[in-house]
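can u do me a favor
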C-alpha cells in the first residue's frame, strides 16, 4: 500500500555525538536516531526523531515498536 503511494524505502540512521563537550549539562552517551522515508522524485522526508540514551538493539526495537503503533493510526492522504 505504501509503495502504491510512492514510498521507496525507510532509512534509519543515528548520530552518536549529541553535542559538543563545551555545552553544560550535555548527554555524554546516546544518540539522535532518525527514520526517513524515500519517496517519489528522490525526496527524503524525516518521519521520526528519537534521542536515545543507549545504542543497543533493544533500544532500536523499542523506538520502532512505539513508532509503529503511532503509524498504524495514520491514513495515507489524511494530512
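np, heres the sequence
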Amino acid at each position: 500500500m505504501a509503495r502504491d503511494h510512492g514510498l521507496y524505502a525507510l532509512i534509519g540512521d543515528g548520530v552518536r555525538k549529541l553535542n559538543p563537550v563545551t555545552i553544560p549539562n550535555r548527554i555524554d552517551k546516546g544518540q539522535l536516531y532518525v527514520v526517513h522515508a524515500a519517496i517519489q522524485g528522490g525526496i527524503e522526508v524525516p518521519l521520526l526523531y528519537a534521542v536515545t540514551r543507549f545504542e543497543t538493539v533493544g533500544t532500536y526495537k523499542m523506538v520502532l515498536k512505539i513508532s509503529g503503533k503511532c503509524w498504524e493510526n495514520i491514513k495515507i492522504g489524511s494530512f
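The beta strands are 7-15, 31-39, 43-52. hope that helps!!
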